[in-house]
Design a protein that fits this description.
The longest helix is centred in the middle third of the chain and has 29 residues. The chain is mainly α and 107 residues long. 62% of the residues lie in helices and 0% in strands. The chain starts with a helix and ends in a 30-residue tail after the last helix. This is Putative transposase. It comes from Mesorhizobium alhagi CCNWXJ12-2.
Amino acid sequence: MAKKRAWTIQYSRGRPKRIKRYRELLRITRHTLDYLKQTAEKLPLAAGPAGELWQAMVGHYRPLVAQIIAPTERRVLHGKAVHANEKLVSLFSSRMPISSSRPSAVC
């Protein structure tokens, strides 16, 4: 569902349509984070190595997803500029910089 929303954002024409689709994607993402939180609270660490691994992965990715949501809301919904160093480019590579032509680029 989220992948489809991201695709429609990429190919939508006009700011109003894009903002509407971003709102939908942000809603879905928040719902998924809430679901993850509820599941993490219900899944005890005593579930064995698989449960511990899952808990560790959730603990790693939840803050990263939150780090993506905040600048997206500021940039898309509120029309504010977001500095490149505040953006998270990839969930899977923490060292991937945003290339810019200016030292203090705002994207």
